[in-house]
Design goal:
mainly beta, 2% helix, five-stranded antiparallel sheet, 2 helices
């Protein structure tokens, strides 16, 4: 994290787009941009670049909003290629030139995690017969993978997964969380610590007070887990506090607040049971922050700040470990995609990529660009239309934003990058 200390302290502008503006604006019609040619978003002015050249029926996209796309020093970029020839592929982190496919067989598209410390390493749970259920670490330079933990010994024929919104390991690569259902039918949550090799297992499901479909999520510091609205001890043995959330299934991302403290950054469509610490909208928001230390609930982007009710298809990425408090979001607006015709003003955050800077004095919102993706409403998709969701992903340094788009239901999905102020000063640029 020290390599970005200068960037965090530098007096760089926050926003290359439009800041703290809640006005409705039309979505200008725009032909799909040429590969590699930078262009300015016509509504907000942020500079974008299409970095992939998908064929009809092909997909190039971030694995997921909560999973790093760039490696630790941002020299490499990981994308999922779907549709015609599925694989995880490696690109140069700066030129975006294709390097190669990765020879991995992860339990799911989303469950491939870069190391936070070693730019050459990524982690995944294997579904290959020979290593079924093993947590593996791959050296992307040599192509050699090793087994770190044999989780299949606990899970049997069931694959350990992250469940729900898959999240990253702790920032020291030491604490991992999984869930599975053993051959006996018993669902379990698993915590594995790399430094000690210790595997902690606790039951999920009927009679436990826990739903069986989500996994414990490590805190950035590796000293706690988040599960279904509660903060647990790192060995899953006890509960520290409960967050004021309506349900634990909304899209969310674990990250750090501006002071470095661990926090859950979530989108919320329903009121918090306790009213979200007196919030007039009771916690309904495009983005709300729940701290791990005191359990506080703080809305950052909501109707009280002049924005519309939470837009459907909103995803959150709080992966900027080098820029605590900086969070990227993408929203779609299912049911209103006719507004992509550019003729009528669309409400703020409709079909948008935007950035939130959550500081002690309050949150600032930067509207960056329209993504123009039909996603799950696409009709020309020979691939699974869900893969057209933007799934915005912020870089570790917080100086770039990646997203996918089918660009007006074009029949394919490409990846786009927005470079933010400060990117030119990145130490590895």
């Amino acid at each position: 994290m020290q390599r970005w200390a200068a960037l965090r302290e530098a007096d760089t502008p926050f926003c290359p787009g439009v800041t703290d503006d809640t006005r409705s604006v039309p979505v200008p019609r725009l032909a799909r941009p040429e590969l590699g040619v930078a262009f300015d978003d016509p509504a907000f002015g942020a500079r974008l670049r299409r970095i992939t050249a998908s064929r009809p029926g092909e997909v190039f996209k971030p694995a997921y909003s909560t999973v790093q796309a760039w490696n630790a020093d941002e020299s490499l970029l990981l994308l999922y290629r779907g549709g015609l020839d599925p694989a995880h592929v490696l690109l140069d982190g700066h030129s975006y030139a294709f390097i190669r496919e990765l020879d991995i067989d992860p339990s799911d598209i989303e469950e491939v995690w870069w190391s936070h410390r070693d730019p050459r390493s990524l982690h995944y749970v294997s579904k290959a017969a020979r290593h079924f259920g093993d947590l593996r670490r791959l050296d992307v330079v040599t192509g050699r993978a090793i087994t770190l933990a044999r989780l299949g010994e606990t899970c049997g024929r069931a694959l350990p997964t992250g469940g729900g919104d898959v999240q990253m390991p702790s920032h020291d690569d030491d604490l991992f969380g999984f869930r599975c259902r053993a051959d006996s039918g018993q669902a379990s949550m698993l915590a594995w610590r790399a430094s000690t090799g210790r595997l902690s297992v606790q039951p999920l499901g009927e009679g436990t007070g826990w739903e069986p479909w989500t996994a414990p999520v490590p805190s950035p510091d590796g000293d706690a887990f988040w599960l279904q609205g509660r903060v647990l001890d790192a060995d899953l043995s006890g509960q520290r506090l409960r967050h004021d959330v309506y349900k634990a299934a909304e899209h969310a991302s674990i990250g750090r607040a501006s002071d470095g403290g661990a926090a859950l950054f979530a989108t919320a469509f329903d009121p918090s049971p306790g009213g979200c610490d007196g919030d007039p909208a009771q916690g309904v928001a495009h983005l709300v922050m729940h701290r791990f230390d005191d359990g506080s609930c703080r809305p950052l982007v909501n109707e009280a700040a002049g924005y519309p009710y939470t837009t459907s298809g909103t995803h959150v990425s709080a992966l900027a470990s080098g820029r605590p408090g900086r969070v990227a979001l993408s929203s779609i607006g299912y049911g209103r995609l006719d507004l992509l015709d550019g003729k009528s003003p669309a409400p703020a955050l409709f079909s948008e990529i935007y950035l939130v800077d959550a500081q002690d004095e309050g949150a600032r919102v930067c509207r960056l660009a329209h993504h123009r993706s039909h996603a799950k409403s696409a009709r020309r998709a020979a691939y699974r239309p869900y893969l057209g969701e933007p799934h915005v992903t912020i870089s570790p340094s917080g100086t770039r934003v990646l997203f996918g788009s089918d660009w007006y239901d074009s029949g394919s999905v490409d990846s786009y990058v927005i470079e933010l102020p400060g990117h030119a000063d990145h130490p590895n640029r």
